[in-house]
Automatic annotation (TrEMBL):
It comes from Meloidogyne enterolobii. The lineage of its organism: Eukaryota, Metazoa, Ecdysozoa, Nematoda, Chromadorea. This is Peptidase C1A papain C-terminal domain-containing protein. Residues 25-35 have a biased composition (Basic and acidic residues). The keyword Protease applies. Belongs to the peptidase C1 family. The keyword Transmembrane helix does not apply. Residues 16-41 are annotated as: Disordered. Pfam families: Peptidase_C1. SMART domains: Pept_C1 (SM00645). One of its GO terms (biological process) is proteolysis.
Amino acid sequence: MEDKHLKMLGVKLAKTLAPPPPRNVSKEENKGEGKHIRRKRQTSCTDNVGFDARNTFQCCAGIIGAIQDQSSCGSCWAVAVSSAFTDRYCISRMKAGNPPAFNDPTARFSAADMLSCATYTSGCNGGDPYNAWLWTYTSGIVTGTDYTWATGCKPYPFPPHGTTMYTAPACTYSCTTAWNKAYSVDKRFSQMVYFLQGQGNVAAIQNEIKANGSVVAVFDLYSDFYYYSSGVYSQPINGILIGECRDSSKFFVELMSAVLSLQKFHLALQILNNFK
C-alpha cells in the first residue's frame, strides 16, 4: 500500500500533542446544562434489543442517514465529528419540539471549518477526533454542507471521489460571501465532551447513542483492514499497522510501537447502527 492510503484513513503522523484547556462557555452560547468535560463514564446495560437511530429519532432520520464523501483527504476525523455533531444538534432540537428540516443548511455543521481550524490536528494528514470534539467545546463550529450542496458558512472544499491528494485550506475566520451571517455568529458549541474506553464500556456507548444519538469511535488499525468489504469488521491477526514503506516492487508493513494506534469511525452508525 502507498502512503496515499494512510492519508485517506486519516493516519496522524505528526507528534501527538496535549489537548488545549477548555474555555468557559456562556449560557447564551450553549443554553443548556452540564458544560464541562468528562473523561470517562461507567454505566451498565442489560438489554440486547436491535436499535436504529433513524427509527428512534424519526424527525432526524434523513440527517442521521446522510453520508459525506471525504474525497482524497485524510479528513475522516473531521467528517466523523462534524457529522455526529450535526446529528446530535438535530436530535436536541427534536427533543425541544423544534426539529430542523432536512434541507436546512443552518443545521449542518462544517467538516471544512474543523479540518482547517481545529487545534492539535493535522488537516488532510489526519487528526484525533477527541481533540476535534474539544475544539467544538472551546471554539465552536460553523455551518457547512458537503461539496455537492455547497452552502452554509464553510461548505466542504473537495469533490466526491477525488483523484488528487488534497491539502487542507488555511484557516480563515470568515464565511463564504454567499452566506449572510458572520463567522462568529454562526458558531455553535458542544455542551460537554468525554470519551469511553475498553470493552467494559460497550453498554455505556450503546446507552449514549440510544439517548442522544451519534458518537464517534476509534479503534486499532490493522493491515487486514485494507481488505475489508462489508459487514461488522473483526480483526483476527496480531500486529498493529502504523506506517508503510515501499522498496522497488515490494511492499513492507512497518509494525511500530505507536505513532498512531487509533482510527475513528462514525459509530452513529450513519449507515446502520444496529445492536443485536
